[in-house]
Structure formats: structure tokens, C-alpha cells
Specification:
Layout lengths: L3 E4 L5 H12 L3 E6 L14 E5 L5 H15 L4 E4 L5 E3 L6 H29 L2 E6 L13 H21 L4 E8 L6 H4 L1 E3 L8 H15 L8 H11 L7 E4 L1 H12 L2 H13 L1
Parallel strand pairs: 1-2, 1-4, 2-3, 4-6, 5-8, 6-7, 7-9
Helix pairs in contact: 1-7, 2-3, 3-4
The structure holds NADP nicotinamide-adenine-dinucleotide phosphate.
NADP nicotinamide-adenine-dinucleotide phosphate (NAP) binds next to helix 1, helix 3 and helix 5.
Length: 273
């Protein structure tokens, strides 16, 4: 029987590519997204089922689980991929955006895990692959405190769950990418202010960096991340944490060898002077 993977946030970027790659390799794919009516490519691939799922709405997760199991019999792997980025000086960020960062990147993942655990427990098998970030292990760009917070939280959540899920034969993995081409940059919410000038310099420099990263070819080929997810899902890579991308590896090496303040000052230099 073919294996089945369910991916959240399959409408664009890493999720979309991951869905196509697994389908190409013979897996059944539940490609879930908030607005399946907008999808034009994945629904033409025979072993992909495009299903509505908003990770902030538990009832859609339950329905998506039922639809996937009815289509494919069971789920073997869940990729918690859906995520958003709230950037900007914390003082300038709207309360609603702070809540949204947590609601999607942390509570959304919790919602998905809690919904699928009964299924995984019943079959005494299952694998969660959580898409973290280098920003879950270290700050890597100024004005990312909220995104950092959310991805650090995902690290704690995933590590903390290990003990209770291991005896049930449910595996957990974290993928920690650096910068890879996707819609992530275009989807970032970036807070600015017309009246508070104290953050103007750092805001304009970080914004310029984020804009430069949006250009095609400016960041690395996302298939490296997709291949990492594939190796984890198929059991070839058994690591709990996999760091992906030269930029991520460099940041984490610098963080390891430098005293923290030297590391932070080095990282922040080009954004503050
Ligand atoms: N690309 C990178 O450089 C990079 C680096 C490190 C980590 N990551 C992580 O990789 C993951 C995928 O991001 P990406 O780079 O592929 O960015 P992306 O192209 O912006 O994709 C994000 C996906 O998340 C979905 N999403 C947002 N809110 C959702 C919700 N409430 N329920 C379900 N889906 C929701 C989006 O769907 P809609 O189309 O409906 O908005 C979209 O499909 C994220 O967790 C991100 O933090 C990316």
C-alpha cells in the first residue's frame, strides 16, 4: 500500500513543491490549504487530493483528516509547513498581528498535532515533520522578534512532545531552513510607523533586505528543503533536527563560536550604522 502524507500550507512555496515531489515519487498526498478553490495545478495530479484546511480552525482540520483517511485509508506523515512572518519593531506591531503570529505558527501546529494524534495512536505509527527555521535556533535578522518567538516555541513544543510520543511509535522531526525561494517574503507583514521615527533606520534597512530577498534567484533553491522533507518522511534521515542551507549553517556556527553579544553585534552591524 502506498504511503500517505498530509501537508499544511500547500497553496504556495515549500508546501506546493513538497506536494508535487511526493506525488511524483508515488506517495498519496493530501495537499491541504485555506483556499482549495484557487488551486489550479495540484488538483490535476491523480494521487493528490486537494483539501481545505486552515490550521487556526480546528473544525477544518478534523474534516480534512476525515476526508484524507476516507480517500487514502490512513495517514503516515504530517508536514506542519503552514507559517507566516510578522516583522517590524515590536512597539509598532498591532496587537492583532502579535496574536496572529502565535495563532498560526504555534497554536496552529498544536491544533494539527492534537487532531491527528488519535489516528496515529490507534495505528501505533506516525510521523510529524515540523518546518521550523534557523530563526527558531538563533536570531538571524533584526526586527524578527515575533517570528523568532514563534519558531523558538516550535522547537520547545517539538522537543517537549518527544517523551510522550516515543513510546507510541510516533516520530518527530524539525527542519530548520535558512532563506529559500518561496512566497514567504511576499507574504510577510511588516510594521512601520509614520510618527515614531526612532526605528526608521533599522526599519528601512531590514525592509530593503527583505525586498532584495524576494527577487527571483536571490535565495537558495527550495528543492533542497523538499528533498530533506522527503528523506525524513521515508525514514532515510532519522535526525531529530536537520539544518538546511549554507546561510543557516553559517549563522549557527557563528553563534556557537562567538560570545552572544559579539554575535548579535556582528549580525546587527549593517542594519544599525
Ligand atoms: N522560505 C524560507 O526561506 C523559509 C525559511 C525558514 C522557514 N520557512 C518556513 O517554511 C514554511 C513554509 O513557508 P514558505 O516559505 O513556503 O512560505 P509561503 O510560500 O508564504 O507559504 C506559506 C503557506 O502557509 C499557508 N498558511 C498561512 N496561514 C495559514 C493558515 N492559517 N492555515 C493554513 N495554511 C496557512 C499559506 O497559505 P495561503 O496561500 O492561504 O496564505 C501558504 O500556503 C513556513 O512555516 C515558514 O516559516 C521558510
Amino acid at each position: 500500500m502506498n504511503k500517505t502524507i498530509l501537508i499544511t500550507g500547500s497553496s504556495t512555496g515549500l508546501g506546493h513543491l513538497t506536494a508535487k515531489h511526493f506525488a511524483k515519487n508515488g506517495w498519496n498526498v493530501a495537499a491541504t490549504m485555506r483556499s482549495p478553490e484557487k488551486e489550479t495545478e495540484l488538483n490535476k495530479i491523480p494521487n493528490i487530493k486537494v483539501i481545505k484546511l486552515d490550521i487556526t480552525q480546528p473544525e477544518t482540520i478534523k474534516l480534512a483528516m476525515e476526508e484524507s483517511i476516507s480517500a487514502f485509508g490512513k495517514i503516515d506523515v504530517i508536514v506542519n509547513n503552514a507559517g507566516i512572518g510578522m516583522y517590524g519593531a515590536l512597539e509598532l506591531t498591532a496587537d492583532t498581528d502579535i496574536d496572529k503570529q502565535y495563532a498560526v505558527n504555534v497554536k496552529g501546529v498544536i491544533n494539527v498535532i492534537r487532531t491527528f494524534l488519535p489516528h496515529f495512536r490507534e495505528q501505533r505509527a506516525g510521523r510529524f515533520i515540523n518546518i521550523g527555521s534557523v530563526m527558531g535556533l538563533s536570531t538571524a535578522l533584526p526586527l524578527g522578534s515575533l517570528y523568532n518567538m514563534s519558531k523558538f516555541a516550535l522547537e520547545g513544543l517539538t522537543e517537549g512532545l518527544y517523551f510522550e510520543l516515543k513510546p507510541l511509535n510516533i516520530d518527530l522531526h524539525l527542519v530548520e531552513p535558512g532563506g529559500f525561494e518561496s512566497n514567504f517574503g511576499a507574504n510577510i507583514t511588516f510594521s512601520k510607523s509614520d510618527t515614531i521615527k526612532d526605528y526608521d533606520i533599522i526599519t528601512s534597512k531590514v525592509e530593503a533586505t527583505l525586498n532584495a530577498a524576494k527577487k527571483q534567484g536571490a535565495t537558495a533553491n527550495p528543492m533542497t528543503v523538499v528533498n530533506t522533507i522527503y528523506d525524513l518522511a521515508s525514514g532515510k534521515n532519522k535526525n531529530f533536527r536537520t539544518i538546511v542551507g549554507k546561510d543557516a549553517k553559517t549563522v549557527l556556527l557563528l553563534r556557537k563560536v562567538l560570545p552572544i553579544k559579539n554575535f548579535l553585534n556582528l549580525l546587527g552591524k549593517k542594519f544599525t550604522s
